[in-house]
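Researcher: Go.
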Amino acid sequence: MWKIELEDIPFAADVRELLMAFYPEAAGAHVRGSCRDNIYEFTVTFHDGGLAHFSCDSAGDRFQVKSEIKRELYRTLSEHEHRTLPWGTLTGIRPTRLAMQGLDFRKEFLTSEEKIRLCFETARREEQVLGKIDYENGWSLYIGIPFCPTRCLYCSFTAYPVALWQYKKKSYIEALCREIEAVSLLMKDKKLQTVYMGGGTPTSLEAQELKTIMDKIGSCNDLSHLLEFTVEAGRPDSITEEKLAAVKQSGATRISVNPQTMNQKTLDVIGRRHTVQAVRDKFLMARRMGFYSINMDIIAGLPGERVADFAHTLDELELLGPDALTVHSLALKRAARLSEEKDNYSRTSNEDMCEMIETAGRRCREMELNPYYLYRQKNMAGNFENVGYAREGKEGIYNILIMEEKQIIAGCGAGCTTKIPLKDGKGVKRIENVKDPQIYIDRIDEMIARKRDIADGTD
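Model: Structure:
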């Protein structure tokens, strides 16, 4: 695919990410580099035998040196491959954070004008939404339910088939409620502002099980400062009227019903064991039951889909009228079955990905949905992005908070991460829970003990 040999040059990871953006599959390049007399010298050998050379001064600010190396490598690759990348040299996952710092994207990262506009528009809306957040005295709670009806082809999350855990769900819920209670006690002097129950698929649990968890949250916390309570009801095949009633009665204000695609053939390929009609039925059921903040997720670049297929999904969703729509670009994660079996599936071309993403942005605006959060992932198809669009006042607050990392977010459940912002504003301390549900149950006291200083923040 590609190879990197850098002698006395510290930026191998950055070179690797840029190469992966250009060459996610077979064709690639060999990059050699060395330092001579304070000058970094690079040679690029392409898959077709072509050669290119460039050099950079090693003196100066580390960020600027790294940026210059990436720009020169980008120009070299772009010239040889006769194409550009929408985000240029930018490989970070939080471009809106850079926008808020006032960086010149065109100069620093060679980013396209379209993506610069998207980034700054999203950053402005993020700032508006987060204006109501109390970073110093507030906190957010994430609840992880690591069970799903089935595992999707592209999924890399901590998720286990719920059918295999029927006899251990009770023990998991008991351990989870213990952790919720302990964390809530530690945070009793702060204001709980958002709650997000994700997974996995929370609605793979039964209605009473959902109610038990949500009631525990309510009984352990003062919810008078709560701005948002989201429950992912992501898989239509896991949604019932009884479960939605339990979720609503327990205080949820926002849910997700996630089709990923509205093409039945693709649903079958990716392992989503529900029908297109089930998506329509469960969405309309939620509306009838009084859910007025419903998000839907779709993925651009799913195996076998072309632009017309993706446009059909957007047509179908426009008829339903969701309050928010998150558009993901397919990412090939190592832990996903799709990565292991990628040779069995056709990959979406860069041209088609570009048209899909552009179509999604245009159609969302036609539906009066505006971009409010944006993030990127490694190995993402076409080097694009994930964007959350929403109607005014229907933005997912937690989605922005988890990206911006400015407020304490306590993660309860197997595979969850607690994030505590550093007091100097430069990064976060991460506290991880074990991923396996049985180990989580067995070591719940340890999971709780790891968080004993959570309310104090960190230096």
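Model: The first strand starts at residue 3 and ends at 7.
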